[in-house]
Amino acid sequence: ALAARHKEVTVKYTRMRYELARVLLEEGFISNFRVDGEGIKRQLIISLKYLDDGTPVIRGLERVSKPGRRIYVGCDEVPRVMGGLGIAILTTPAGIVTDREARNRRVGGELICKVW
């Protein structure tokens, strides 16, 4: 969607996707998101963010942990992305958090993705 310069992306609603969108909004990678519909027809509509020259704010996104190969990291092994310019998103006992929050709270968990 970013490569095609779309303004919004619509995905099926799950709690995991909702929390990922919340983290991306807090970190400034997307401009907004909202939930539309009810029950099984609920959708998550994510508004993508671009710079003034039309360049996407999200320059790269890498999924790390996959259904066939889960990747877990301890609190001392949480990676830095692009020397701190990007973020890693983890699921922890404290919820879905960024790499900085995980280090501050001294928690590890499943490494979901990296965004820069």
Descriptive account of the structure:
- With 116 residues, the protein is of the alpha+beta class.
- The chain has 2 domains: 1-54, Ribosomal Protein S8, Chain: A, domain 1 (2-Layer Sandwich); 59-115, Dna Ligase, domain 1, CATH 3.30.1490.
- It is 16% helix and 34% strand.
- It has helices at residues 15-26, 99-105, and strands spanning 8-12, 30-36, 43-48, 61-63, 72-73, 87-92, 95-98, 109-115.
- A hairpin with a 6-residue loop joins strand 2 (30-36) and strand 3.
- The longest helix is centred in the first third of the chain and has 12 residues, at 15-26.
Percent of residues in helices comes to 10-25%
How many separate domains? Answer: 2
Low-confidence regions:
none
Average residue-wise pLDDT: 96
Main beta-sheet strand count, sense and barrel state: 5 strands, antiparallel
CATH architecture of the largest domain: 2-Layer Sandwich
Straight-line N-to-C gap: 16 Å
**What is the C-level CATH assignment of the largest domain?**
Alpha Beta
Query: Quick one: overall form?
Result: globular
Number of helices: 2
What's the quick description here?
By secondary structure, this protein is α+β, with helices and mostly antiparallel strands. The protein has helices spanning 15-26, 99-105; strands at residues 8-12, 30-36, 43-48, 61-63, 72-73, 87-92, 95-98, 109-115. Strand 2 (30-36) and strand 3 (43-48) form a beta hairpin.
